[in-house]
From TrEMBL:
Taxonomic lineage of the native organism: Bacteria, Pseudomonadati, Planctomycetota, Planctomycetia, Pirellulales
Protein name: Haloacid dehalogenase-like hydrolase
Alphabetized UniProt keyword annotations: Hydrolase, Signal
Keyword presence, Signal: yes
A matching Pfam family: HAD
Sample GO molecular function, one term: hydrolase activity
Keyword Hydrolase applies: yes
InterPro entries the UniProt entry points to: HAD-like_sf, HAD_sf
Signal peptide: 1-21
Amino acid sequence: MRLFSVCVTVALFFLPMVVRASDPLPSWAEGPAKESILGFIQRVSAPGSPEEVPASERIAVFDNDGTLWSEQPMYVQAFFAFDRVRQLAPEHPEWREREPFASILRGDLATSLQGGEPALLEIIMATHAGLTTDEFDRVVSDWISEARHPVTKRRFTQMVYLPMLEILAHLRKSGFKTFIVSGGGIDFMRPWAEAVYGVPPEQVVGSSIRLAYQYRDGSPVIERLAEIDFIDDKVGKPVGIQQHIGRRPILAFGNSDGDYQMLEWTTAGSGPRLGVLIHHTDNEREQAYDRDSLVGRLDRALREAPVQGWAVIDMKRDWRQIYPASVQP
């Protein structure tokens, strides 16, 4: 499967150079942001430190879209869903006259999303349900191994943020467990998260649709139903953390108001804790956006970060490099 080649590429080009570097965060510019993160990790993980946290409690959580990889001009899973609409269209001739599908088939993605969340959920249900979990894993794996970003023309798996790969590697080296906690679909992320981020499927938390244990041709399968089970966004993120992890994190990274409650929940606990916001300020190497963006809107969390004591990472100032060297503009 082509996903294997993606795994090898990630392993060869990204992680080894991080592990070998004397500076665990070489793509970060020197300054308060880098110092605050490294200082926190050192304080909670160094043996004998007055603030040392037991390894079992060293839990770090990361939003995915806009925090670990690019989310502009729209979420990667939306691109997947739109491609699935095109793929399944021959089986649904009625879609050519029915929105939001008709606009997708005409190539008018903006109009297809004018229906907001209900329209997106209808697209997700039509394209993500009706398969077994094994079938869906294969569909996602095949797609992610080939799908490319519409602007950079790079594979989406190459649109990850090198500074965050370095953070993930350094945290694991420091005895942390790293979890993805995303509004994206849990079953969309699990097939590739370990290859791309080093995060195994059991450490991925996300939105989900209902599942059912059934039989096909006498064999047991788990089928994906066309019903929402859980939305892992905003107030749902702390709930998802409790349901899947069972421990309050001590470190949380996000980039939008959808991550506010996750950072709030993380930093409200006792003992040393840190919340971090990624602020997209670089319109040359990536894209600058915050309060007025339809994707990854950052307003309330940015305003309240100083009061909450959260670190704000200015992408333009604090990151020497955004993408791995092979995908730089």
